[in-house]
Description:
Blueprint: H1 3-21, H2 26-47, E1 49-52, E2 56-63, E3 66-72, E4 75-81, E5 84-91, H3 93-99
Antiparallel strand pairs: 1-2, 2-5, 3-4
Helix pairs in contact: 1-2
Amino acid sequence: MNKSELVVKVKEILVGKFGETVKVTNKDAKEITETLFGAITDSLVKDGEVVIPGIGKVKIVDKAPRKGVIKRDGEEIPYDVPAGKRAKLEPSKSLKESINK
């Protein structure tokens, strides 16, 4: 599963949970989910970080350039991965405790 497929799957799960928990239509749940993801994205772009209570802090980090390798048919093809920015989640204490029960 690649990143875009993961995002689609997470959105589908959230739409289903909103529909069950809040008793809204799937259309309204989808709109809520899109609005939530849009607000998080906008805030990350503007402020560089977002705190989501109970989940943790999502922040933008700089990644240094590095060397990569593509393995194809038993052959290793080296290439350069450029520097860039990535979103990173620092989980909250409560999320860590829930996961490690």
